[in-house]
Design a protein that fits this description.
mainly alpha, Penicillin binding protein transpeptidase fold, 2 domains, 4 strands, about 5% strand
Length: about 240
């Protein structure tokens, strides 16, 4: 009795033209590998993100150590001149002191001055968390192009002037440390003074602290020194 050799089962091509294994079997190890690799990448990404988060939290805690209480904004004292009046209390006779400054309350600051200040110094002031990440990124980009510019918010400028160690601010070798502490302290102040009322306190302190040249410290002294105005409501854009 003659026997016929068994036929080899031909591999049928898949829909995309590739030949599969007999009996409809496919490359199992290849399939598992195609699933395992993306899973590995996802796991690695999560691990790196976790390490980065822990590192950021640790750095934040380390740099925050030793910073002044952000609520000290309420206790800021501004140097100002002593004013001597005559016996009626109406005629000014003399002023003593190196800094020409008079403090103002938020209610005395006209909207036109607030808008002009934020337009020039910090367009995101009323909404930012104390610093502006997009502004910092844009400043870095411009610096790489040779067009260096600042990216400090109003809150950061106030922190640098009044709520950081003066030795740290003056030491150019510690600029990276100073910038990081400046950002952290700005965040803490914004958290300590939240919402619109908090922003009002911050910008009022900034406008009372800021130096405008001509020995004028604060907006009221600047208005008098440059325009001869005692009432800020008289300021105009003209």
């Amino acid at each position: 009795m003659q026997t016929r050799p068994a036929r080899r089962q031909a591999r049928r091509p898949d829909a995309d033209g590739r030949r599969g294994l007999p009996n409809g079997r496919t490359g199992g190890s290849a399939g598992r590998a195609s699933v395992a690799f993306p899973l590995f990448l996802f796991t690695a990404f999560l691990a790196l993100a976790a390490v980065g988060f822990v590192g950021a939290v640790g750095a934040y805690a380390a740099l925050s150590r030793g910073l002044d209480d952000p609520r000290g904004l309420e206790e800021l004292q501004f140097n100002s001149q002593s004013v001597i009046y005559d016996r009626t209390g109406e005629v000014e006779l003399a002023r003593f002191g190196s800094e020409t400054r008079e403090e103002v309350a938020f209610e005395e600051i006209p909207a036109i001055l607030l808008d002009a200040t934020t337009a020039v110094e910090d367009k995101t002031f009323w909404t930012n968390t104390g610093f502006d990440p997009l502004g910092i990124a844009a400043a870095l980009r411009d610096s790489l192009r040779g067009d260096a510019r600042g990216a400090s918010t109003i809150t950061q400028q106030l922190v640098r002037q009044r709520l950081l160690d003066p030795d740290l601010v003056r030491d150019s070798d510690r600029t990276p440390e100073r910038k990081l502490k400046e950002i952290i302290q700005s965040i803490r102040i914004t958290q300590a003074y939240p919402a619109v009322e908090g922003k009002q306190r911050i910008i009022t302190a900034y406008l009372n602290q800021n130096y405008y040249g001509n020995n004028s410290y604060g907006v009221k002294a600047a208005a008098r020194g440059y325009f001869g105005l005692d009432d800020l409501s008289q300021l105009t854009l003209a």
